[in-house]
Fold this sequence. Notes:
The complex is a heterodimer.
Chain A: H1 2-34, E1 52-59, H2 60-69, H3 75-84, E2 89-96, H4 105-115, E3 120-128, E4 132-141, E5 144-154, E6 157-164, H5 169-174
Antiparallel strand pairs in A: 1-2, 2-6, 3-4, 4-5, 5-6
Chain B: H1 6-10, H2 17-27, H3 49-52, H4 54-86, H5 90-96, H6 118-129, H7 133-192, H8 194-197
Amino acid sequence: MKLISKTLLRIAPLKFASLLVLIVLGASATAMAQNPRIQMSQLDALAAKASETVDVNIDEGLMQLTAKFLSSKDPDEAKAKDLINGLKGIYVKSFEFEAAGQYSEADIESVRSQLRNSAWNRIVNVNSKKEGGVEVYLMHTAGQISALAILSTEPKEITIVNIIGPVDLEKLTELEGHFGVPELGIEVPKARRKN
Amino acid sequence: MNSNDDYLWDKTGEPDPQIQQLEQILGTLRYQPRPLQITGPGFEVKRSFFRRNLPRLAIAATIAMLLFGLGIWLGLQRERPQAITASGTPQQKANTIAQSPPSTAPEVPAAPANDQNQGQADTSRNRQSHAPILATYRLRSERRKDQQIALKNLKEAQAAKDQLMLALRLTSAKLNFAQRKTQDLNQKDTVNNQHKIG
């Protein structure tokens, strides 16, 4: 009896410790899964091959500062101000290449793997051999959109967008072409209509 | 030499001719006070500009001091309302110094409101008018620093604004592309399934 109790006493703390470790690991994994921020630093190496690179990193603090400088009188800026209200961050990385095949599937996979967890829901997945594909992911918290991720892959271009916060998709789609900024050369194919 | 040597001491005794003769000879060398005049090349006495114009310089210095004092007084008069604004509510201060982070520098205290006693009010007003100059300068340098920070923030915000616009436009373009593509697919499906429906 004594031997059993002694053994139990020896094993119990070990089990307790391992259980604790499992709980901590589980909690951190859940936290990681719930993290709306996508790590894109692994794509930085593509900048050397790219002919054009867009890297936007606007965190909450900078967003608040920027919001103060957006005029309410200017309709474009007013729309943008309204749209970024409540957002916690906007992160964009876009690489445009001179020729096709400059990036590999492994590069995209590093981002896609982060979007594959249960916190993200893929709402749109468009694939086109000619024009590439677009994947739109949303993260919901308490029935509201808490983050947006877009993964756009074209033969000569790769774009990753990560917006953290309550995003109004309808307003966001309305914004295209409203700003007075010069054209970026982004090829947005026109809708083909069949008669 | 005579037995009576008083002449030698106080000229009361009988004078000795030899001594008188000596007196006459040496008398020419007696000290006679006169201004020193050194003449000759290289020995011309020049009085410094400061010594020559000392009275004028004193008057000029007095006027300069008065003007300086007047300038400080006018500066204080102009600074006071702003200093009161700066020491007001944090919101007011934030409006005064746009986009600047909170400053840790001391602020000039606001004037105490006392309408009951006129004498006390006058005293406090006098105290206010003689507010420490150092505090004013500190306030001025603080404001200059705030302005520099605000300018830096302005540049950062302008750059961030451009980035933001770019990011939103890019996102919008990608979303629109996805939307158009899905709409296209829906149309295709409708066309393809028409024969089944018909």
